[in-house]
Amino acid sequence: MTRTLFLTCWLAIAPAVAAADGVRHLPPAQADAAAPIELTASVTDAGARAVSVHYRTVGAPAWAEVVFTRAAGDRWIAAIPAGAALPPGVEYYLTSQATVADGAAPADVVDEFASAARPHVVAVRVADKDQRRQRDLARSGGRRSRAHAGFEWIDFGQRTNAAGAVVPDQYYRVDLDFSYRLLAYPLEEIRFGYTRLEGVVPASDRRVPEACTPATAHDPACRLDAGFKVGGWFELGLALAEGVRLDARGMFTANQESFAVGARGELRAGVADGNHLAVAVEYMADVGTVGSFRLGWATVPRLPMAMTVEVTDLPSSLRATGIRLLYDVYYPLPTGLRLGARVGYAARDQIIGGPSVGLSASYDF
Amino acid sequence: MTTRSSVVIALAAIVACTATAAADQIVVGRVVKTDRREVYVNLGSRVGVDSGARLRLKRPVTLRHPVTRRPVVDWLPLGDGTVTDVGSSLARIALPPELLAQVRVGDIAEVYVVRDDAPAPTPVPAPPRPVDDRPIPAVDADTAEVLTVWRATTGASLDARVAAWSGWLAAHGSSRFADDVRADLEVLRATRLALQPDRPGRPRESQLHVEHDLPTRADAGAAVPLVFVLAEPTQVAAAALHVRTAGQATFQRVELTREHAIYLRGTIPATVVAAPGVEYFVEVIGADGAAATAYATEAQPARIAVAAPAVVERFTATRQRTQLTMIGSYLDFATFDDRPGSTGAAVDRRDRFAEAEVDVRYRLDGIVRGVRLGFGSYGGRGGFANRVWDDANPAPVIGFQYGYVESELALPVGRGPSIGVAGRFVAGVGREGFGVGVAGRLRLGDPDATNLSLGVSGVQQLGFLSDLRFETWPRPALPVGISVAVTDQPGNGDLGVRLATDVGYRLRPWAVRPTVRLSAGPHRERHAGVGGGVGLVFDW
C-alpha cells in the first residue's frame, strides 16, 4: 500500500519523468579538432517540427545554428562546422519549433536537449603531438628560431714560481650559434654553431715549472697557448618526454697544428629558459673536459637566473682539475631579445683563483 | 493526471492506511535481546501474546522535517517474524536470516492481539473540540510539493523514501529545500547501508539501461561533463553518478540532474580527474524504489584514461618554489683556552675556522622534494686541542672552495611525519688541489616547518662532520634551529663538538628572512670558544 501510495504521489509531483515525446539525442563523448562534429537525433514526429542545434566554441560570445536534416527513417543529422571545433571544446543545445501553416504566428522554440543557459560541452581534442607542439610553441612565444652569441672570460689566477716567473692561467670562449625548433618529436631542435676558445696556461699541471725565470716565462717550456681558433659543431635536441631533453653535440676543432674532435651532452629536466635542472659533460680533445650541474629558476619576475657548478681542466688537458662557480642572470624582452650576464669564480686550488665574467645575447624569431 | 488530483488521491490513501481497528489491540514492545538465531521482545502472555502470533518489527528513526527542520520521530519497517515461545513477559521470535541480521536491541515490536473474550471497550465520546475557523496557512508551490512527498513517505520503507526524495531532487535541484533534502538523503542512504551489513554493494541488478558515449581520455584537473540517455524513462525515478580516481578504494557520489525527461546530466569533478584515469558507474533508483546499476558497475566501472602530467609541469614557474640562502659563520675553538706553555708564558693555541655558503633550493612536487645547488668557501687554522703553535711549527692553514649539488627525496610513508633523505655531492679545490666529498641527511618532518634531521658528511682535505639539527617555528615569523655537531674540521684535526643556535625573522611571508647564529665549540674542557654568524634567506 505504501509503495502504491508513494508511486501515486511521485507521478503526481514529478512531471519531468514523463517519457520523451519525439527528439532523442545521444551526445558524442568527444570530438577531434578541426573536423566537423556530426550530431544525430531520432525525431519521431519530424514532420511537425524543425530541430536545430545551437553551438559555439567554448569562450565564443555568439551562438550559431544549424537545422537537422533527415538521414534515414527517423534518424536526423546536423554537423557543427570544423571551424568551430577548437579546443577546449564546443558547447551546444538542441531546440525544436513546431511547423505552422503559412501566415500563422511562429510557434515557440522549445529546448530539446540542454539549453542556452546550461549547454552541453563536448571536449575537442587534438592529437597528443599536436597538443604538445602547441604547448612548446606557447612557451617560446610562437618563435621557432634563435640566434645566440656568448662571450666569457675565465681567469684561474696568475701562477708564479720561486724564481719569480709569472704565467697566467686564463682563457676566453666565444660561442655563436643558431637553433631551430623542429618540434618533430622526439627530435625537438637542431642547432649548429661556432666556438672559439683560446687561452694561456703554465706548462705543468698547477705551478709554473721551477726552471722558468721571468726572462723565459714566455717560452713554450713555461707557458702554453691552449685552445683552438675554430670549432664547428652540430647539436640535436632530443625530447625524451615533455620537459626532459637530451642535447647531443658533435664537434670538430682546428688549431694551428691539427684537427681534433669533441662532443657534448646535456640532460635537462624542465624548461631551458626557465626552471630547470641540467647535468652536462663536454669533451674537447687536447683542450679538456667539463662536467657541470646547473639549476635554473624563473621565480623572480622578469629575471630568470641560474647557478652552475663546473668541474673542469680547460683550456688544456694538461692542467689540473679545477672548479668554477657561476651565477647567471637574464633579462628577456618582449621582442624576443634576451640579454644575459655571468659572474663567477674559478680556481684549481684554494690558494689562487680568479673571476669569470661573461655576456650573452639571443634573439628569438 | 493533474497534480491536484494526485494529491487528493494520495491524501485519501493516507487516511485509508492510517485508519485503525477499533476492537482488537496492537501491543507494542521492544527488542530486548538479539541472538545468532532468534530475538527476544518484552511482550508475553500477560499482554495477550500467543505462540504462533505474527509480529512486526520497526526501527525508530529521528528525521528532520524538510520545511521546519524540526526533529520528527518516525519509524522504518524492518519485517515480520513469528512468536515461537511465550513467557509471562518475554517472547522468543523466529526471524528470516536476512531480517535477523538487521534487528537490534531497541527496535519496536508490534503484535496484533485478538481478544475474543474481552469486548472492545466502548469508545468514550470525545469532548467537542472548539471550532478552529482560522484559515489554513497558505504555502507556495515549492513548499507544498515538499510537504506532499514528506507525507507520502512517512512510515514508508527506506527504498521508497530514498526513491521519492531522489526523484524530487532530480526535478527540483534549484529549490531552496534542495540542500536540506540532499543532506537528509545522505542520512537515509547511510541508514540503508547500515541495514544491509552483508550486502555492501548494490541491492540488485536490473535492466534499467542508459545510453552513453564513453569518453576515451580526459585532461588531468579538468571536469568531465557526462550525459546519459534513459532507455526506459518511466522506470527511473532518479540517478546518481559514482566516480573515483582509478586506484582509489571508494567512489564519490554525484547527483545526476534529469532534463527533458530522458537525459541525465552530471559532471565528474575536476578534483577526481587525475592520472591514471577516472572510473565511474551510474546508479538509478527505479520507480519501484529499488536501486540498480544502469551503466557499468561498482566492480567493473567505466574508465576514462587520464595522462600523467608531463615532467615539465613539475617545473611550472610558480612562486615559493625557490629559496636562496646566504650564510657566513665563524667559530673559534680556543677563545677561553688560556693554558700557558711549559715555561708559564702565554702560547698560541689558535684553532678556528670561518665558512660562507650561498645556495639555491628548488622545491619540487612528488618523490623528489627538492634540489639544491650551492657554492661555499671554508678557511681555518689549527684543528688540534693540545698543540702549541710557533714560528717553527705554525698552525696549519686549511682552505677549501667548493660547489655542491643536493637532492632530497620524500620517502612514501603512509602516516606520521614525512621522511626525507638527502644526498649531496661536493666538489672543490683546497690547498692540495681538487677534492670531492659526499654528505647525507635523514629528515623527519617538513623541511619548511618543524623537523629533526641527522646529517653526516666527509670531504677530502676538510674532514668529517656529523650533526643533529632541530628546526621549528615557535612563531609564524620566527624560525629557530638548534644543532649539535661532532667534527674533526678544520683539516682532519681533533674531534670537537660544535653547538649552534640559529634564530631568524621573516620580514614578509615568503620574502626576506635575516638569520643570526650563535655557536660554541668545545674541543676539550679547557679548549673551547664561541662564534657567530649571519645569514639571509630569500623565498621566491
Verbal overview:
The complex is a heterodimer of chains A (365) and B (540). By secondary structure, chain A is mainly beta. In chain A, 7% of the residues lie in helices and 58% in strands. Chain A is rod-shaped and about 115 Å long. The termini of chain A are far apart. With 540 residues, chain B is mainly beta. In chain B, strands 17-18-19-20-21-22-23-24-25-26-27-28 form a 12-stranded antiparallel barrel. The model of chain B is unreliable at 1-22 and 197-206 (pLDDT under 50). Classes of the chains: A mainly beta (365), B mainly beta (540). Chains A and B meet through α1, β9, β10, α2 and β18 of A and α1, α3, α4, β8 and β9 of B.
Largest sheet of chain A at a glance? 12 strands, antiparallel, barrel
By helix and strand content of chain B, what is the structural category? Answer: mainly beta
Q: Beta fraction of the residues of chain A?
A: over 45%
| Mean pLDDT reading of chain A | 89
Structural category of chain A is: mainly beta
Helix content of chain A: under 10%
Give unreliable regions of chain A as ranges. Answer: 1-20
Number of helical runs of chain A? 2
Summarize the helix and strand pattern of chain A as letters: HEEEEEEEEEEHEEEEEEEEEEEE
The greatest interface here is: A-B, 75 and 92 residues
Q: Which strands sit side by side, in order, in the main sheet of chain B?
A: 17-18-19-20-21-22-23-24-25-26-27-28
* Number of helical stretches of at least 4 residues of chain B: 5
> Taking strands numbered 1, 2, ... along the chain, how are they ordered across the largest sheet of chain A?
11-12-13-14-15-16-17-18-19-20-21-22
End-to-end C-alpha gap of chain B: 68 Å
Number of strands of chain B: 28
